[in-house]
Amino acid sequence: MSSLVFAIAIHFDKSLNVKMRKCHVVLTTIFAFSMIVLPLGAFAGGGHHTNGSHHLHVKYYRDKCPQIEFVVAKAVARAFASDPNVAAGLIRLFFHDCFITGCDASILLDSTPTGEPVEKISPANGKNVKAYYVIDEIKAQIERECPQTVSCADILAYASRESVFLSGLPYYPVQAGRRDGFTSRASNIIGNIPFPTMSVDAMIEVYARKGLTLKDLVVLAGAHSIGNIHCKMFDYRIYLNLTDTKVPPMVTSFAAYLKTKCPSPNLGTWEERDKVIVQFDPFSPFRLDNTFYKNLLRGRGLLQSDQVLVSDRRTRRIVRDMAFNPEVWSRKFVRAMIKMGNVDVLTGNEGEIRRNCRIFN
Ligand code: HEM
């Protein structure tokens, strides 16, 4: 909690002048750099998962638009103060953007010239995602200050870093220089976004195609310690007898509690059921922490795709490790976020810098 309060204080204390804020960011960046990025060595550039010949780097906007990180920090902190759910929303947006055709802001497009259904309307992205407005606000401001300079893909990367920080994890340097893509197809969700009933093997395969490891898979799943989930994503686990013996059942007392929050899948209409959500972690819904892993070990995972991580020998080892070492998890989570931000990025002359994140130029 203290670092959360600290984060909000940093972003909102009007008495802090810009110099001090810059100093804070510089210091935390140096600290984070030495703690998180330096040990990564060669990996920092994103390796073969950077499409173009150019690599992302931390000082990308230093001369072009030096205020970008402050603009993003302020906008996300403001949105977070009025609705802390935006942090989870932005982190999930970033994950979905990066997993579908790379971190190219394809998820932000409202339409494309082909008229095909875009990514954001796919049920896998869900109409529940409300955080788009934060990106729109940042883009509108930054277009006034630095026209056609900062990509929507980079704004999303910065905004998710702020979200991670506001949710209590270390501030980390974001490598920038991504360009915005020209495609967005709802059909690209298939095979790219993991779904709740996926097997561990299938999840490993999806992550591997993004250059992410088994460890990254388990470490990133810890994002499910914040935010909300529709009951319909797991109600079959609490109401119906599972036939899949590979998935450990939910512990009975927790299932009984969830039944008081979630209606049976046999009751009500789909639309009614579509509205019911619960928090992933009701005890600290806005704090990224390793409670997620402790809960998995106690049989209190909501999503089948999370709980199944305990039943597989390869992933169980990592779940245990993360459950007993909160610092190790937070460091690894941040590193995995940086790594995810490098997936199949467009750089150099690829793509474009959109003026409006929702449409092509
Ligand atoms: C096996 C991989 C994953 C699966 C199957 C999965 C599935 C889901 C599902 C079904 C929800 C609930 C959506 C809803 O009910 O509207 C959700 C929420 C969420 N997921 Fe994942 N997810 C996965 C990995 C990740 C990763 C890698 C991240 C980020 C690093 C992430 C971040 C989140 C967040 C923050 C939420 C809460 C969103 C909100 O409250 O707005 N997930 N996920």
Description:
One of its GO terms (molecular function) is lactoperoxidase activity. Disulfide bonds join 65-146, 98-103, 152-357, 231-262. Ca(2+) 2 binds at residues 281, 289. Belongs to the peroxidase family. Ascorbate peroxidase subfamily. Belongs to the peroxidase family. Classical plant (class III) peroxidase subfamily. InterPro entries: Haem_peroxidase, Haem_peroxidase_sf, Peroxidase_pln, Peroxidases_AS, Peroxidases_heam-ligand_BS, Secretory_peroxidase. With 361 residues, this protein is mainly α. The protein folds into two domains: 2-192, Peroxidase, domain 1 (Orthogonal Bundle), CATH 1.10.520.10; 200-337, Orthogonal Bundle (Peroxidase, domain 2). It has helices at 2-12, 18-37, 68-82, 85-99, 132-145, 152-166, 200-209, 214-221, 235-239, 252-259, 270-274, 291-297, 304-311, 313-324, 326-340; strands spanning 228-230, 277-279. It has a two-stranded antiparallel sheet. Helix 1 crosses helix 3 (68-82), helix 3 (68-82) packs across helix 6 and helix 12 crosses helix 14. The termini are far apart. Bound molecules: protoporphyrin IX containing FE. Protoporphyrin IX containing FE is lined by residues 85, 88-89, 91-92, 95, 126, 128, 194-196, 203, 220-221, 223-224, 226-230, 233, 303, 305.
Reconstruct the topology from this structure.
Layout lengths: L1 H11 L5 H20 L30 H15 L2 H15 L32 H14 L6 H15 L33 H10 L4 H8 L6 E3 L4 H5 L12 H8 L10 H5 L2 E3 L11 H7 L6 H8 L1 H12 L1 H15 L21
Antiparallel strand pairs: 1-2
This protein binds protoporphyrin IX containing FE (HEM).
